[in-house]
Amino acid sequence: MFKVGDIVARKSYGNDILFKVVEIKKSGKENMVTLKGINYRIEADAPESDLALQSDRYISENNERFCRAIEKKCQEAIASRETGKLKKLFTRDTAKDGSRDFSRPGKVLHIDGDNDYLDACLEKYKSFGIEAVGKYIAEKEQPGSIYKLLQENRPDILVLTGHDGLIKGDNNINDINSYRNSKYYISAVKEARRYESDLDSLTIFAGACQSMYNEIIKAGANFASAPYRVLIHALDPVFICQKIAFASIDKILTPLDVISGTITGYKGIGGIQTRGKYRNGYPSEPSSLQP
User: Fold this and answer.
1) pTM for the full predicted model
2) 80-84, 104-108, 258-262: which has the minimum mean pLDDT?
3) In which domain, by residue range, is 136 found?
4) Is 289 contained in some domain?
5) What is the per-residue DSSP string for the chain?
């Protein structure tokens, strides 16, 4: 009835979220279908009878609605940056000779269990002017890969994300086995902290939809999802990084400073006080140097 790549919604949830079919498993009388969210970082299973194929028109309208919301957030994020003011203060007494300063936002290493989301995030980092290295690594492989990647890339900010979700029928939110991928994010954060234990030297965001927030924070993340076990938007990690990357190194951001810039808000993202990563320098090297 369905094939891999189809865009569907679940009837039992009122067709509220669009999913992509990623796997179809033979299971007794009825096939079970593994689904990944189109705009949200959720993974789920559903019987074929619970799924409704979505029309191209509805998919297009849904994507346009999300694009408008994202663009609004992007404009708000850029408008709220303090870097222009910081640069002006920095150069007030140093630019009288005509020399120029330079600046460097924080560098991001983004590890993602979804290749499509990774591409979308990298495009958004570029539009924000953030240097970002992206790696597509399945959630279960992230703990074993992260230490070497940190050594190779030496980022200021680390993102560990992909998909997650509470397993249907498992209602104990305090049991790690009730979550699809939270245990991998927790282990990966611990590995990252083995590389760099200082929360100000390496800022970490980890998690996806409905992830086990408290345990990810305890493992050493600065920010994580999801305090209220809700869905988070695919680009929320980018908005978190943008806020931190462009906040001055001498500023301590409150959790609300960072969370207010996300699409999902405090029900989906939480964290701790964190130092900004934006640095000014002086002077910049001239375009031509005389021997």
Assistant:
1) 0.87
2) 80-84
3) 70-90+103-281
4) no
5) ---TT-EEEEGGGTT-S-EEEEEEE--TTS-EEEEEESSB-BEEEEEGGGEEEPPHHHHHHHHHHHHHHHHHHHHHHHHT--HHHHHHHHHTTT-TTS---EEEPPPEEEEES-HHHHHHHHHHHHHHT--EEEEE--GGGHHHHHHHHHHHH--SEEEEE--B-BPTT---TT-GGGBSSHHHHHHHHHHHHHH---TTTSEEEE--TT--HHHHHHHT-SEES-TT----BTTHHHHHHHHHHTSBTT-EEPHHHHHTTSSS-TTT-EE--EE--BEEESPPPPSS---
